[in-house]
Design a protein that fits this description.
Layout (H helix, E strand, L loop, with lengths): L2 E4 L2 E4 L4 E7 L8 E7 L6 E7 L4 E3 L7 E6 L4 E6 L8 E8 L12 E6 L1
Parallel strand pairs: 2-10
Antiparallel strand pairs: 1-3, 3-8, 4-5, 4-9, 5-6, 7-8, 9-10
Length: about 120
């Protein structure tokens, strides 16, 4: 499965963006889909995850502001980001998790830049 994230851009603090992740194959059987991000000079971190059953969990830093969702019929995963902060600036990636962490090679990701 190849995963391509898109939808990033430049937004002012307090604004919103919706990221999308398109999968080349069927994601219905993938146990967990996740969004990750990497800011300059920092390690990649998990932002949000969603199971095949729809259960979600979020990094503390984005709880209440970000919402992850998946559409198995369309092989898509989304990340709705509201109340964006400058510290959300990063390259965002999506990946699959079969229980052993991110499964596939990282794609190019999509850049999110939040200006203050």
């Amino acid at each position: 499965v190849q995963l391509q994230a898109f939808g990033g851009g430049l937004v002012q603090a307090g604004g919103s963006l919706r990221l999308s992740c398109a999968a080349s194959g069927n994601i219905a059987s993938i146990p967990i889909m996740g969004w990750y991000r990497q800011a300059p000079g920092k390690q990649r971190e998990l932002v949000a995850q969603i199971t095949s059953g729809g259960y979600t969990n979020y990094a503390d830093s984005v709880k209440g502001r970000f919402t992850i969702s998946r559409d198995n019929a369309k092989n898509m995963v989304y990340l709705q980001m509201n109340s964006l902060k400058p510290e959300d600036t990063a390259v965002y990636y999506c990946n699959a998790n079969y229980g052993m962490g991110p499964r596939y090679p990282w794609g190019q990701g999509t850049q999110v830049t939040v200006s203050s």
